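User: What would this chain look like folded?
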Amino acid sequence: MKDLVLKKTYRNTNGEDMKRSHALYPGSLVLLIILVLIAIVPANSIVSAPMETDAIESTGIVVTAIFLRNTPENGLSPEKIQSVLKEKGLFDSRRNPSGKGITHAYEIQKAGKFVHDRAVHITWQQSGSQKEMNYAEAKHYISQLNRDQFAGYNDWRLPTTEEAMSLMQSVKKRSGLNIDQVFDPLQERIWTSDIRKEGTAWVVRFDSGYCDYAYTDANIKYHVRAVR
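Assistant: Here's the prediction, encoded as structure tokens.
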């Protein structure tokens, strides 16, 4: 690239016209252009980078994260469950049929092994146990997931009732279940970590659209869908 040469005429001390050449190097030219642009571009026309949101980029859906209890509760009464369902707007065909449920932001990860929900910042197994099991077996299943570091993690657990109910949708899908089709339909009913009273635990029934409690003895069996 040739240098740009500027010629300037001036007079010397004897009054004679003289010419002097000034070489303007490429780097100087670029800097000059940048300075000129900064001077003429209005400050309010500069666009800042967009803020990170919980939107799914492909659809433009923006969701507001809500808090769901993630620790087990003993002595969880039906009255308290109903209060939580109504407070958080969670659908239950018996206890809160007017609930609209959560606007989810699901992301399938690890080759389909689990589903992360950005709306509540928790991660679910996409599938779950392949057979029904009693409550003791359900706890053993969770322990085995962690020993095996399923999908690379060792902090899997049974969901609380409100976490599991956050999956409940007010309209049945083609699978016949009140749960998004991103999940395996095999797990129609799942155990939770919440205890109603000694000998009973809360379960969530996606085939019926509600939560209830069931006996934890060896004869009562449901599936497991772990969460972390």
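Residues 26-40 form the longest helix (15 residues). If you want, I can go into more detail on any region.
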